[in-house]
Amino acid sequence: MNEFDLIEHYFLSNTENRRRTGSVTDVGNGDDCTVLSHLAGRLAISTDTVVHGRHVPASAPAGWLASRGLGSSVSDLVAMGAKPLGFTLALTLPKVSSGWLKGFSEALFRAADLYGIALLGGDVTRGPLTASYTVFGELPKTGRLLTRASAQLGDKVWVSGTLGAAAGALPLFDQPLRSADRSYRARLQLLQAYVYPAPPVELGVRLQADSRVHAAIDISDGLLADLAHIAKASQLDLNLNASAIPVAPALSELYSRPHALMHAMSGGDDYQVGFTADPTWSIDDRMVSQIGEVMAGTGQVFIDHTPADRWLERLATTLPGGMSLATGYQHFG
Amino acid sequence: MNEFDLIEHYFLSNTENRRRTGSVTDVGNGDDCTVLSHLAGRLAISTDTVVHGRHVPASAPAGWLASRGLGSSVSDLVAMGAKPLGFTLALTLPKVSSGWLKGFSEALFRAADLYGIALLGGDVTRGPLTASYTVFGELPKTGRLLTRASAQLGDKVWVSGTLGAAAGALPLFDQPLRSADRSYRARLQLLQAYVYPAPPVELGVRLQADSRVHAAIDISDGLLADLAHIAKASQLDLNLNASAIPVAPALSELYSRPHALMHAMSGGDDYQVGFTADPTWSIDDRMVSQIGEVMAGTGQVFIDHTPADRWLERLATTLPGGMSLATGYQHFG
């Protein structure tokens, strides 16, 4: 097979993807444009790039660029409560290898299956290894949108999932993972959290539909860093209860309490949603935790009524030396 | 200014862009997603990546990555007859420099102005220099679409613009350009054609609206290579009249007739539209040329009734040695 045939084989022949593409488009892959049809409302759009050697380790297998890239993009749809429809992929490759394309495309379609979305089109070019995803999600035609600017005084602060696992996985990449090791299961769970983000798609749609939920944000740059965006955009303070933060169990097993809490508060790559809701709101979902409240203020985040930065500094003094104090992932760090 | 502020300054502060974004979105830049609203019909989507050092020379100024990237993406919308609405940008940068960002963003918004479209959102990450554009265009809610598969027997073949200029510019990058040179104007025109693609947006919308126009394609991979897609997808032959091909005048001034014709037939980066229309169709636009006809066949392209490949080989024998016989731009060439 030549290079064009390889690309076509790995990206265009997936039967389930063709079916899904057909259900949301009039023209799918293979013409100048994809034509999305049946658009009944508004369309949420988000773009994310994964750079090999930066957002995934240089030694990462092909699939990581797919599962992490698509997961992080879908996470933005979830935070706006949009129902994921599909995505386009701009893939830049230094060379075409069938082994690499097989690993990448299998992981891509596995992730697409998880979200029930279709690869709608894209561009494959030669160059340094990067993958940019643009995802599309449906929103109702009218009604309020779940932005980061709409928190209300008296709201409770909530977060989905458990936190810190992906950040806790970072030091594990260089370590051998043997099933005989005592901490094997916990370490595997952290690595899986890093490699396979699973943003809570159904929860997002449910939050969007409930007018008592006011503001929401994707917390993948770190819980504190992202909740600070809600605080700033809404011009209100957020106070979090440290003891209520849902630290990932595997993280607690492998790290000391302060270290685990640090990862849960400031580690990146938790593709979960942080949101605020009326105090009368509740949910029958043990994967959603109430972690604080919205108070009058100027747009700051507090932990146990201490400014978040100062609280983190204090926590850091209890850690072994050299621990970073970063309060969120810096794209240009 | 820190890096975040620089990015915000150069991409989010443009007043005209904010106005345009506001007119097509409920939520623009700065939240987890952009929310496109007022969607009355179908949405055409296309993605293109520009890799620095590959799609533009390594010595190219920042603006080339903007003008060429956005132009090539909009060209795909034009070929489907969609009315351009906006785009997202995934920009990967090795470092943040205000000079580079200034040059890039100015060229980006100049190109966006040309098409009347808004930068709706994006992602800036650190890594090797590449820019991926995903463009959005509006199409009527119902009715036929202008695909490459719908040519009809007896149609005439048409092409917009003049051809070959961008391909003719490639050898000029390494040569000094002095206004005192005899061929200064012609060389400048070729370079401008390469740097500033200008896909015919209004023509695209007009072709889409006219049911006598049947099939269309963006010819930026080369006239012959792209018309071959129409032939193959429509399962009909296309015969072109060599003497009718609209060779760019500046190209004719700088190159021999066979060399200029070779560029016009097989050179890439002409962001124009090739299309077929009922023989009764005509247009009052001297920038649109009738160049051939659709005949019964198996999906081949002919020039003056000779198979295109053989015709090109014959033309090549009249050229100085070493001339490439490529019949279209190969992304993985």
Automatic annotation (TrEMBL), chains A, B:
Catalyzed chemical reaction(s): thiamine phosphate + ATP = thiamine diphosphate + ADP
Binding site for Mg(2+) 5: 221
Listed GO MF terms: kinase activity
Ligand binding (Mg(2+) 3): 32, 76, 218
Pathway: Cofactor biosynthesis; thiamine diphosphate biosynthesis; thiamine diphosphate from thiamine phosphate: step 1/1
Keyword Chloroplast on entry: no
Residue sites binding Mg(2+) 1 per the record: 47-48, 123
Residues given in the record as substrate binding sites: 55, 269, 329
E.C. code: 2.7.4.16
Alphabetical keyword list: ATP-binding, Kinase, Magnesium, Metal-binding, Nucleotide-binding, Thiamine biosynthesis, Transferase
Enzyme type, top EC level: transferase
Keyword check for Amino-acid biosynthesis: no
Residue positions binding Mg(2+) 2: 48, 76
Entry-linked CDD domains: ThiL (cd02194)
Binding site for Mg(2+) 4: 32, 46, 76
Superkingdom of source: Bacteria
Record-annotated PurM-like N-terminal domain positions: 30-138
Binding site for ATP: 122-123, 148, 220
Family label: Belongs to the thiamine-monophosphate kinase family.
Note: Reaction mechanism of ThiL seems to utilize a direct, inline transfer of the gamma-phosphate of ATP to TMP rather than a phosphorylated enzyme intermediate.
Stated role: Catalyzes the ATP-dependent phosphorylation of thiamine-monophosphate (TMP) to form thiamine-pyrophosphate (TPP), the active form of vitamin B1.
UniProt-recorded name of the protein: Thiamine-monophosphate kinase
Organism whose genome encodes this protein: Allohahella marinimesophila
